[in-house]
Amino acid sequence: MSVAERADVEHALWALRAYDTTALATVSDSGPHVAGVFFAPETEDGRIQLLLAVLDRSRKAADMAADSRVAFMCSPGNPSRWIQGWGTATRPELDDAGRLEMFRRLIAHAPGARQFVDTLPVHPVVVAVRELKVVEVLGKPPLLLTFD
After folding, report:
1. Nearest residue to 102 (alpha-carbon basis) of 125, 86, 127, 128
2. CB neighbours (10 Å) of residue 117?
3. Strand ranges, E, within 45-142
4. What is the CATH number of the domain that holds 85?
5. pLDDT band at residue 1 under the 50/70/90 scheme
6. Into how many domains does the chain fold?
């Protein structure tokens, strides 16, 4: 990855850190579905990933188990500033310590997730972002990132 690409990834992370929830879209034989989720943006090997906590036995969990492709959007309700992307979701196999560490990182970024994690049956999910579009100002080209 070149220095310019690393700078773009850092800029995208900076933009994502302005949000702690995203609208997450899944699809299944039942049709499309969208729901709000808490998330934390991170990088792994120079690629962006989102950490999520997903309710066990939810439609979202079932959809991702059947088809790992997801889309997401973060927006403050301003049509000239938003982030959208898509990627693949996986439910990592973790021991209790690993689960707690992932949830600790999620809550460090999205404190509102604590009540959700502490009181409901949830499991961690990692979304490996494949494409990301960051729109910050109308009339200025968006930042477009693609990860293979």
Report:
1. 125
2. 19
3. 47-55, 69-74, 82-90, 122-135
4. 2.30.110.10
5. very low
6. 1
